[in-house]
């Protein structure tokens, strides 16, 4: 019991809780657009195919903001500290999401999704880096799993808030929650590992240095690649689930918000399962491989199993979310793979580059769609992401219980 109590006390430390609840608000705001895409665009006067193409454009603007913000916050996280990112990022995305509730035109909407994307980019990487550095190495997998799990719960909250309130109010709620969280962060302290590194006369937070060494650059790109199937499923299969449901000729229209909520409900359990299994078998790579293979099978079932019942479709949304529930492990591996002077840069940019990969993935999907159709074009894109992820995972080292007190 003493070991269990000690683990619980470590996981309930303020830095861990703040990172976890911060990611909850982050994911609420990040996925709120997927939930309110259709009603918000309809209220701005868009109909039919414009809902898909304008929705894809707005999603890409948000993801482009994540790409830019990922680099900015990652560099700041290593140069100025993890806490500077936790404070700055949440302030920007909270204000941006409040502003989203006031948009009246598509260009305004696009600009505010871009600004929100910049703000949202900093939360996960800084939080996971801080948690990984303040927790003992044997239990840090539990800490990052807690962060990721609460984040996915935030995505589920987005569905319920959008179901209870008009889409503008849902944006106001997200922004308000973020500003409230800033009050809790006042008492959070910096990690000791980073504080020690900050006193050294070494380069910190140099994004360019990730590419000045061939092996380091390959390691970085491999970390990005193993997360691609997650955001293929989220950014294409789930975000555009109404269009997939129509192509499948289901017996009822798909509600995008419900599909998002169910997929992330599945991902909650997937994140918990993958995190616990990783601790049990003492390996990150083996469990990521297991979930990649399960994900590939579920994508094939989702796209090509000939079912027509809407409830069956929603069940597969849950299962698809579960098999993509290795997000916590993926981000943890990125944080563990690099030294303290580059850790925040990597842990922040890697998940955001995966999110930003939705831009080329949706572009390829829309390019193939006229000739291949919705289902087969999505299948081709999904197969491509899976092959890339499996090849990348094969070349990465195991990081379970790796000592993080080192520099590049």
TrEMBL record:
It comes from Chitinophaga barathri. It comes from the Bacteria. The lineage of its organism: Bacteria, Pseudomonadati, Bacteroidota, Chitinophagia, Chitinophagales. Keywords: Membrane, Transmembrane, Transmembrane helix. Residues 15-397 form the Major facilitator superfamily (MFS) profile domain. PANTHER family: CARBOXYLIC ACID TRANSPORTER PROTEIN HOMOLOG. It is found in: Membrane. Its main location: membrane. This is MFS transporter. One of its GO terms (cellular component) is plasma membrane. GO terms for molecular function: carboxylic acid transmembrane transporter activity. The chain crosses the membrane at residues 12-36, 56-76, 83-103, 109-132, 144-162, 168-186, 220-240, 260-280, 287-307, 313-334, 346-368, 374-393. It is a multi-pass membrane protein.
């Amino acid at each position: 019991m003493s070991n269990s109590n000690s683990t619980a006390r470590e996981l309930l430390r303020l830095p861990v809780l703040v990172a976890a609840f911060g990611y909850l608000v982050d994911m609420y705001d990040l996925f709120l657009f997927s939930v309110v895409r259709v009603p918000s665009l309809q209220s701005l006067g868009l109909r039919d195919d414009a809902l898909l193409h304008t929705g894809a454009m707005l999603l890409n603007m948000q993801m482009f903001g994540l790409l830019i913000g990922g680099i900015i916050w990652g560099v700041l996280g290593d140069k100025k500290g993890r806490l500077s990112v936790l404070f700055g990022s949440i302030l920007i995305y909270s204000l941006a999401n409040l502003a989203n509730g006031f948009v009246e035109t598509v260009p305004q909407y696009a600009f505010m999704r871009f600004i929100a994307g910049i703000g949202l980019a900093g939360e996960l990487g800084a939080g996971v880096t801080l948690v990984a550095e303040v927790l003992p190495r044997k239990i840090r997998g539990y800490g990052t799993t807690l962060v990721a799990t609460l984040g996915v719960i935030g995505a589920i909250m987005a569905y319920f808030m959008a179901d209870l309130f008009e889409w503008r109010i849902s944006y106001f709620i997200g922004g308000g929650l973020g500003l409230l969280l800033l009050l809790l962060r006042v008492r959070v302290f910096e990690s000791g590992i980073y504080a020690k590194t900050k006193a050294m006369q070494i380069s910190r937070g140099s994004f360019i240095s990730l590419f000045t060494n061939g092996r380091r650059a390959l390691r970085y790109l491999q970390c990005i690649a193993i997360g691609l199937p997650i955001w293929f499923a989220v950014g294409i299969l789930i975000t555009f689930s109404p269009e997939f449901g129509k192509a499948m000729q289901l017996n009822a229209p798909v509600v995008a918000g419900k599909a998002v909520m169910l997929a992330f409900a599945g991902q909650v359990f997937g994140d918990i399962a993958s995190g616990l299994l990783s601790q049990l078998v003492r390996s990150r790579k083996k469990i990521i491989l297991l979930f990649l293979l399960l994900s590939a099978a579920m994508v094939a079932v989702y796209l090509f199993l000939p079912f027509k019942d809407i409830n069956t479709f929603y069940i597969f949304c849950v299962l698809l979310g579960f098999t993509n529930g290795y997000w916590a492990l993926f981000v943890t591996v990125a944080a563990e793979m690099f030294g303290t002077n580059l850790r925040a840069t990597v842990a922040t940019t890697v998940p955001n580059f995966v999110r930003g990969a939705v831009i080329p993935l949706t572009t390829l999907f829309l390019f193939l769609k006229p000739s291949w159709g919705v289902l087969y074009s999505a299948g081709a894109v999904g197969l491509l992401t899976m092959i890339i992820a499996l090849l990348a995972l094969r070349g990465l080292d195991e990081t379970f219980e790796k000592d993080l007190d080192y520099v590049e």
